[in-house]
Amino acid sequence: MGTPLESRTEQAEELVDRLEEAYPDSTISLRYSNRLELLIAVILSAQCTDERVNTETKHLFEKYDGPEDYANVPEEELAEDLSSITYYNSKAGYIKDSCEMILEEHDGEVPDTMSELTELSGVGRKTANVVLQHGHDVVEGIVVDTHVQRLSRRLGLTEEEYPEPIEQELMDLVPEGYWQQFTHLCIDHGRATCTARNPDCSDCVLADICPSEKGDSEIDLASGEHW
């Protein structure tokens, strides 16, 4: 198994340094051209791949232009437009309800605070963080998706299991200037190497500092289960 650095702060900083070198162009993979499209894309991305979302939103964003279109369309029609997305019925409702609230309470503009964003239907802290960071250039926290959750546990940065407490721990460990990039680096590495089911530890730039490394470790700290 790898040997973690002496402190979790050092471990987090080393992770950022190494992954920045490995993925110098790391950035958000969802495609959008304005804040509303970003919000919708992130809502759709829950438990769905960004690749699938990008395929679906290509025609969605051609059909709908602005919150009025989403608010006024019958929910069944919007759901049909999203039918290849996981949980498309629920997400159609979230999008329609959110756009109604954006029109009624925010003058048609996507809000720019955590509290206002998380009042929108289907928007939790993770989604709000993405919209703030990439739509408003406001970095209030760290987006904890499944990749960040998995890597943070495997690398011994946290023992927490759920996104919000993981985020709070990471905010104390990761330098604030890297809060946004930390997520993208974890996503790229999680897709390329540190996958959920069969991570390629033999070709991992973090293997020597990873307490879950499969060479010797018997336990995947992300799941708590034996390899």
Automatic annotation (TrEMBL):
* E.C. designation(s): 4.2.99.18
SMART domains (alphabetical): ENDO3c
Q: Which Pfam families match?
A: EndIII_4Fe-2S, HHH, HhH-GPD
Q: Where is the HhH-GPD domain?
A: 44-192
Q: Which GO terms describe its biological process?
A: base-excision repair, AP site formation
The cofactor note from the UniProt entry for this protein is: Binds 1 [4Fe-4S] cluster.
What are the record keywords, sorted?
Answer: 4Fe-4S, DNA damage, DNA repair, DNA-binding, Endonuclease, Glycosidase, Hydrolase, Iron, Iron-sulfur, Lyase, Metal-binding, Nuclease
Q: Does the keyword Isomerase apply?
A: no
What is the required cofactor set for this protein?
[4Fe-4S] cluster
Q: Where are the transmembrane segments?
A: none
Q: Does the keyword Hydrolase apply?
A: yes
Q: According to its UniProt record, which reaction does this protein catalyse? A: Hydrolyzes mismatched double-stranded DNA and polynucleotides, releasing free thymine; 2'-deoxyribonucleotide-(2'-deoxyribose 5'-phosphate)-2'-deoxyribonucleotide-DNA = a 3'-end 2'-deoxyribonucleotide-(2,3-dehydro-2,3-deoxyribose 5'-phosphate)-DNA + a 5'-end 5'-phospho-2'-deoxyribonucleoside-DNA + H(+)
Q: Give this protein's Gene Ontology molecular function annotations.
A: 4 iron, 4 sulfur cluster binding; class I DNA-(apurinic or apyrimidinic site) endonuclease activity; DNA binding; G/T mismatch-specific thymine-DNA glycosylase activity; metal ion binding
Enzyme kind, highest EC tier: lyase
Residues that hold [4Fe-4S] cluster according to the record: C194, C201, C204, C210
Q: Which HAMAP family match?
A: Nth
Functionally, this protein is described as follows: DNA repair enzyme that has both DNA N-glycosylase activity and AP-lyase activity. The DNA N-glycosylase activity releases various damaged pyrimidines from DNA by cleaving the N-glycosidic bond, leaving an AP (apurinic/apyrimidinic) site. The AP-lyase activity cleaves the phosphodiester bond 3' to the AP site by a beta-elimination, leaving a 3'-terminal unsaturated sugar and a product with a terminal 5'-phosphate.
In the record, the note on similarity to other proteins reads: Belongs to the Nth/MutY family.
Protein's name according to its UniProt entry: Endonuclease III
Q: Whose protein is this, by species?
A: Natrialba magadii (strain ATCC 43099 / DSM 3394 / CCM 3739 / CIP 104546 / IAM 13178 / JCM 8861 / NBRC 102185 / NCIMB 2190 / MS3)
Q: What are the leading ranks of the lineage?
A: Archaea, Methanobacteriati, Methanobacteriota, Stenosarchaea group, Halobacteria
Gene behind this protein: nthA
